[in-house]
Amino acid sequence: MEPTVGSGKILTTPVITEDGQPTEYETDSTKPEQTINNVSLDKDVIVWKLTLHQIGLDVVRTDRALVYYENNENEAKLWDILAVYSWIDKDIGYCQGMTDLCSPITILIENEADAFWCFERLMRRMRSNFKSSTSTIGVRSQLVVLASVIKAVDPKLHEHLEKLDGGEYLFAFRMLMVLFRREFSFVDILYLWELMWAMEYNPTLFLTYESNTDANEIKAVAGKENLLDVYGRFERRYIRTGQKDEDAPLSIFLMAGVLEGKNKRLLKEAKGLDDVVKILNEMTGNLDAKKACSEALKIHKKYLTNKMRGRFSDGARLEKVVAVVLRGIVQVVVAF
Amino acid sequence: MAYRADEDYDYLFKVVLIGDSGVGKSNLLSRFTRNEFSLESKSTIGVEFATRSIHVDDKVVKAQIWDTAGQERYRAITSAYYRGAVGALLVYDVTRHVTFENVERWLKELRDHTDMNIVIMLVGNKADLRHLRAVTTEDAKAFAERENTFFMETSALEAMNVENAFTEVLTQIYRVVSRKALDICDDPAALPKGQTINVGSKDDVSAVKKVGCCSA
Q1: Domain holding B79: CATH number?
Q2: How many domains, in total, are found in chain B?
Q3: DSSP state letter for B43
Q4: How high is the ipTM of this complex?
Q5: What is the pTM of this model?
Q6: Which of 254-313 (A) contact B at CB < 8 A?
Q7: I want to staple A130 with a disulfide (CB 3.0 to 4.6 A). Which of A95, A247, A293, B123 is the partner?
């Protein structure tokens, strides 16, 4: 469909116009196979071809400090994986940030096909962040959860941040979107991701990744009590507290931990969004993955405890209301 | 002259950087705010912000500059991005004609989402790559005149015109704002303290006039 895919080369200029015509850059070239482009193309094909050069533009800006990418074939491998992915997942296609997630996998897994499937599984976990409509982008729902976590564990900080950016928490966009890739060195991010994914481990995870898995099958696995030890530390707490409906990943609590760690400075020094960004940028290269994760677990615990307490007090209130109503009914009955 | 702390300014203006992916928006920003340029710069994910204060007349103007990812997909956060913007640098890459072709679309989006008084400058970046030039200065100048925007060619790498481009935009915003202030009342000194002057959308503190800021 596009001869560049798998050829060891990448595209950085558009090959097609929005109405499906080959661009001048392409017609200028002497490639004979371009003549078949005169056939009118399927809409899916046009959309896909339009993203190819965008992938290329980002590939040449990904992990440039690594010797690995001095080799054009390695560069092409990253491009191939993302090009094929954007074809098989048409809902998501390609979105800036995906090169950051894909690059470590491309480097670690030598075989291109294996690397592709590994990335595809990672995307099952992450894809909702990248899903966009005309009015919003998926990661924003995680930012909403982050705001509610900060509101629950540190209301004063939340109030301050809300004043600065209307509670959008856009300054945490990148961290959640590419799992702190930009805040850690290449080697440290491998360590952090492994730690995070181990903590988020859930024995039903792989079943949920299979689209053809029966929901009962997942329930059967999840229901086994003796499996509790198998869960990662983070995931286990959701199970223990019976809050399985929560779908907030560890990355949100990592971010909350970072904000908490900078709490004093943010309250005192941040007078604008740029100050927040400046203070947060200082974490780059200065975060300890292990410490950051244990901070995140602490906040997670605090958040869930607060929430349960909130639920209990709601329950208590409900009991009072019921009692008052009952008393009213009794009085009415007695009056009769 | 009296000592000024960082946060002392007379005006705060929000300026946005827009344009296709890879035209050099982030490097223009880092060149202007930190005098830095990186050949290994990464794609922008989400939004970034940086500030710098400059002097216009005898006033301190602080620019809060927003930089965003160029991919069309990220237009989804547009409303937050454009909210309250009073200036915009619309950047294209002089070596890639397609980025100039898309300027029209960016301009439309900008005008759809911001106040009509917004100050826009068309910026042709990477002007140092003379042998690769694909967009002529004349074409861009004609376009800018037609669309009633300012125009400048820059090189973030060689630090050419970067300072000028931002300063020009900020100065023009300042002119719009001070003219507005004069329209409101003949005697600018009679302005109530801390009054917000909106040249952008209605709901933001985009152009804040701080009166008597040096008294601290």
Answers
A1: 3.40.50.300
A2: 1
A3: P
A4: 0.83
A5: 0.85
A6: 271-274, 277
A7: A95
